[in-house]
Amino acid sequence: MSDPKIETYTGPAGGWGSAKSLATYLAREHIPVSGTAMLTKQNKPDGFMCVSCAWAKPAKPHPFEFCENGAKATIWEQTAKRNTAEFFEKHSVTELLAWPDHDLEQVGRLTEPMRYDPQRDRYVPVAWSEAMAEIGRELQAIAPRSAVFYASGRASLETSYMWALFARLYGHNNLPDSSNMCHESTSVALPQSIGVSVGTVLLDDFETTDLIMFFGQNVGSNAPRMLHQLQEARQRDVPIITFNPLRERGLERFTNPQNPLQMLTGSSTEISTQYHQVKAGGDLAALTGICKALLAADREAEAAGRPRLLDLDFIAKHTHGFAEFATFCDGHDWSAVEGRSGLKREALEAAARVYGEARNVIGIYGMGLTQHRKGVETVNMLVNLLLLRGNLGRPGAGICPVRGHSNVQGQRTVGISEKPELVPLDRLAELYGFEPPREKGLNTVETCEAVIAGKVTAFVSLGGNFIRAVPDTVRMEEAWRKLRLTVQISTKLNRSHLVHGEISYILPCLGRIEIDHQATGPQAVSMEDSTSCFHGSRGVATPVSPDVRSEPWIVAELAKATLPPNPRVPWDAWVGDYSRVRDAIEATYPDTFRDFNARLFEPGGIVKPLPARDRVWETETGRANFTVPAGLEADPDTATDRRDVLDLITLRSNDQFNTTIYGYDDRFRGIDGTRMILFMSANDIARLGLEDGAEVDVATDARDEFAREVKGLRVVKYDIPEGNCAGYYPELNVLLPLWHYDEQAKTPAAKAIPVRVAKAAPPA
Ligand SMILES: Nc1nc2c(c(=O)[nH]1)N[C@H]1C(S)=C(S)[C@@H](COP(=O)(O)OP(=O)(O)OC[C@H]3O[C@@H](n4cnc5c(=O)[nH]c(N)nc54)[C@H](O)[C@@H]3O)O[C@H]1N2
Ligand SMILES: Nc1nc2c(c(=O)[nH]1)N[C@H]1C(S)=C(S)[C@@H](COP(=O)(O)OP(=O)(O)OC[C@H]3O[C@@H](n4cnc5c(=O)[nH]c(N)nc54)[C@H](O)[C@@H]3O)O[C@H]1N2
Ligand SMILES: [Mo]
Question: Which listed residue, of 14, 138, 295, 328, carries a Cα 20 to 30 Å from 603's Cα?
Answer without folding.
Answer: 14
